[in-house]
Design brief:
The complex is a heterodimer of chains A (about 100) and B (about 120). Chain A has about 100 residues and is mainly beta. Chain A contains no helices and 11 strands. Chains A and B meet through strand 5 and strand 10 of A and strand 5 and strand 10 of B.
Amino acid sequence: EIGLTQSPATLSLSPGDRATLSCRVSQSIDTYLAWYQQKPGQAPRLLIYDTSNRAPGIPARFSGSGSGTDFALTISSLEPEDFAFYYCQQRSPITFGQGTRLEIK
Amino acid sequence: EVQLVESGGGLVQPGGSLRLSCAASGFTFSDHWMAWVRQTPVKGLEWVAAINKDGGDKHHVDSLKGRFTISRDNAKNSLYLQMNNLRAEDTAVYYCANQRYNYFDYWGQGTQVTVSS
């Protein structure tokens, strides 16, 4: 079974900072990876699909990169509304990482 | 505006059954694969099942096969999840979602299922 490991578990940053979240996959998945944002009490929201494609309506400060087994989500300059949980997801089989909590420092 | 509204969750005893529903609007329901995804504090997000556009092709996570069944009614723009022989570990928030290329574009607000005596 392919596993997804996200790091760090918690990331403490300030508004305006650059955030880089990591997702490592136990075997190569080409570029078939997505990222979701989830705020407390809300459903996840698709941010990025196929590693680097932003979903409709997602601000340009969100970007994705990587291939094979190592992927990253970068938020170029944090806005107050970006502090949330972030999950990566592979396409086949469909599995999710355990999440990174992005909190205000 | 795309809307997915789940219902049918609640408290059920171990061994009991529940049927979740998801009412879709704001898009052509019959043109989309649909799925159920659940979330627990311990296991996180877990894909449960998916169904193709006309309901003829269904996929369920191996660990739930035989207990959970996904279905849809395109005439009613509705998605369903029949859950039988429920266990404590099925306690979760269950989300209905639009599945496209095995990613999830749109999600409902979720419905809580609690399995407890």
